[in-house]
Design a protein that fits this description.
CATH class of the largest domain: Alpha Beta
Strand order of the largest sheet: 8-7-6-4-5-9-10-20
Number of helices: 21
Largest sheet: 8 strands, mixed
CATH topology of the largest domain: Rossmann fold
Distance between the termini: 46 Å
Number of strands: 30
């Protein structure tokens, strides 16, 4: 059977005017510092006040830090590992290290010390940048396991005045070393920047690690810059006058794509919240024109809005329900190509001022022109919800290995069930086996120190994504799931558990769901995580007492609530896709337990192995399951806790 190919789109023109000689990030930064020296590159909120940082200051701080690195013996080909919440200093460190010929490697700040040590050592990083005491303590704890690490640079040394470790050096000390070096030779940094080439490795970027430990994808400047140019060619409305809020992990390719690549190419302002806890409030204060986030962010916003409405009075609930139904009808008519009646347009104007605008203001989307979802697909229900509120939400599809993006929805052609159409200069193909493969100038150089995995992913110039998909009649790509996660039913048909999971989570009461299939190929079941905040509030309103997450998750009333949700989802599914049994787990899936990746994707195979006895009990028709789990306290003590999980049959299609 012939393979299906999407040829390079005609909309491949490059709109940004980029000097071909500016083929690395440090060269782009220097260009911006020269041409837009007094324009605002960053804003950082400190003590409630937004501090402005110009492009010239950005370049000067990066230059000083980079030269400080050279004074410590850091040079071309060396690796700087970076851990911390998003701050301008992280970008000074990254750009400084790249400017002197180094490669940067962002790590997730919520990683456990053992995980950090393993990844840092594998990357052969010689220096580690830590934002604060918390991150520095993780590295110091396992420093004996990191023989290659020579220095630990700490930006915020509050609480560390008694630390006397020889490996520690302050960020300000690094800048002082660099300025002293520049005083001796003012042109030294520029010579190092000029020596950089587009094919140099710019970053190591962790893969999501859904099926195994994360691999380190090597991405060159050429990969990243071409991706930014090709993406902007189909999304040209991003301008230098825009605002962006940077609050997602620096280690994620999506954040690197926007806050570094597009930021340097376009020149908009990047804003940093004061603390992770204030990110939503600061996001609302900035009210950016565009945002890029993974599915969990949009799911969380939907939950937050829904919970607030549940707490509102009957009149406000009625008005909200009317406005949301109206918005949904308009979205449906547009998707069907039908005209919008005048009365509906007038009603929508009223709904905008009564409902949509206040909600958009609360979540910081009041000035949003476009929002992108990436990292993992977002369920059609969520798309319909946000489009009903007039949010121009689009799906992005891609992998770390292709610098983040290969497909995106086009304006006026947002099909909720698809991944969009290839960006400029990008080809996507569906193999005979149903695997999505891609080719573009953004294709990575390979996995660091892992030739076997590189050979498996890169074949004949194509990236084999490992995703199972097909083509929509509109020409868009449809991605069902990872090929290893697609379920084959007894009749031989294939189905994606992700589709059902997204529908189950479209409620404030379910935080996470994993759908499994029994060996008979006929019985589908679900392991559910309740949302403790929402379910806890629901229980309190009904006078249901509980002591902990485990206790709340097994309350009969909570199981009844979940059964109603599952039955409602079943009503919308084909008979062979319906959930027959479910269990409310005694704990949340968590990255520290290796059940989720650091980007909050399910690690299905690990979960299936960890809870294999529970899954066997579900498939055997058992009414309950006795579970024992270990609780680890901060002082290192552990204790075993025993609980009984109810396994519920879903007897009705809908309640």
């Amino acid at each position: 059977m012939a393979q299906t190919v999407l040829e390079r789109p005609a909309a491949g023109r490059v709109i940004l005017d980029i000097d071909p000689a500016a083929d690395t990030f440090p060269k782009l930064l220097r260009r911006n510092a020269q041409s837009s020296s007094d324009r605002i590159a960053f804003r950082e909120k400190e003590l409630g006040i937004w501090q402005r940082i110009t492009w010239r200051q950005y370049y000067e701080r990066a230059r000083a830090f980079g030269m400080g690195l050279t004074e410590l013996g850091f040079g071309r080909g060396d690796v700087l590992a970076i851990i911390g919440d998003n701050r301008p200093e992280l970008f000074y460190a990254a750009m400084g290290a790249q400017g002197v010929g180094g490669t940067t490697y962002g790590l997730y700040q919520d990683s456990l010390p053992e995980q950090l040590a393993q990844l840092i050592d594998f990357s052969t990083a010689r220096l580690v940048f830590c934002e604060d005491q918390e991150q520095a303590d993780k590295v110091l704890e396992l420093l004996p396991l990191l023989p290659k690490v020579q220095r630990i640079v700490v930006e915020d040394r509050r609480g560390m005045w008694r630390y006397r470790h020889a490996a520690l050096v302050g960020f300000d000390e690094m800048e002082q070393l660099g300025r002293a070096a520049l005083a001796r030779d003012p042109e030294s940094f520029d010579r190092l920047v000029d020596a950089g080439r587009g094919d140099d490795v710019a970053i190591f970027c962790q893969t999501s690690g859904t099926t195994a430990l994360p691999k380190l994808a090597m991405l060159s400047y050429r990969n990243l810059i071409s991706q930014g140019l090709n993406f902007h060619a189909v999304e040209p409305h991003i301008t230098r006058q825009d605002e962006f809020v940077s609050y997602l992990p620096f280690a994620w390719i999506g954040e690197e794509m926007i806050s570094t690549t597009l930021h340097l190419l376009v020149g908009f302002t990047v804003n940093f919240p004061e603390e992770p806890e204030t990110a939503q409030r600061d996001f609302r204060e900035i009210a950016p024109q565009f945002t890029f986030a993974p599915a969990r962010i949009y799911e969380g916003l939907h939950t937050a809005v829904t919970v607030r409405i549940l707490d509102a009075g009957w009149l406000r609930k009625a008005i909200y329900d009317w406005a949301l139904r109206l918005g949904g009808r308009i979205v449906d008519r547009r998707s069907e190509g039908k005209p919008i009646p005048v009365w509906m347009t007038l009603a929508r104007w009223i709904a905008h001022w009564l409902v949509y605008r206040p909600i958009l203001d609360k979540i910081g989307f009041l000035h949003m022109r476009v929002a992108w979802n990436g990292g993992s697909p977002l369920g059609p229900d969520y798309f319909k919800f946000f489009h009903s509120l007039s949010v121009n939400l689009k799906q992005i599809y891609g992998q770390t290995e292709i610098a983040g993006i290969s497909c995106v929805h086009r304006a006026g052609a947002v099909h909720f069930w698809t991944m969009g159409y290839p960006i400029a200069n990008t080809e996507v193909r569906i193999t005979d086996e149903g695997e999505i493969i891609e080719r573009s100038p953004s294709l990575f150089l390979g996995y660091y120190n892992n030739p076997e995995a590189t050979a498996k992913a890169l074949r004949d110039g194509w990236l084999h994504s490992g995703d199972y998909g097909t083509l929509d009649p509109t020409g868009d790509i449809i991605m069902f799931d990872r090929m290893s996660d697609v379920i084959t039913l007894a009749d031989g048909t294939k189905m994606s558990p992700w589709v059902i999971e997204a529908m189950l989570k479209f409620t404030p009461y379910i935080q996470e769901a994993m759908v499994t299939c029994c060996p008979d190929g006929k019985t589908l079941s679900a392991i559910l995580n309740i949302d403790q905040r929402s379910v806890g509030k629901w229980a309190e309103d009904l006078g249901i007492a509980y002591t902990s997450y485990a206790d709340l998750s097994q309350k009969t009333q909570v199981i009844d609530l979940l059964e109603g949700i599952v039955a409602g989802v079943n009503q919308r599914l084909r008979p062979e896709w319906r959930i027959a049994r479910f269990v409310s787990l005694y704990k949340e899936f968590h990255p520290d337990d290796d059940e989720l990746t650091r980007t909050r994707k399910l690690r299905r195979h690990f979960i299936s192995e960890r809870y294999q006895d529970l899954i066997r009990a579900i498939c055997a028709g058992a009414p309950e399951y006795s579970a024992t789990f270990t609780v680890r306290y901060e002082d290192g003590r552990t204790t075993d806790v025993h609980t009984t999980l109810q396994i519920r049959d879903v007897t009705a299609v809908a309640r």
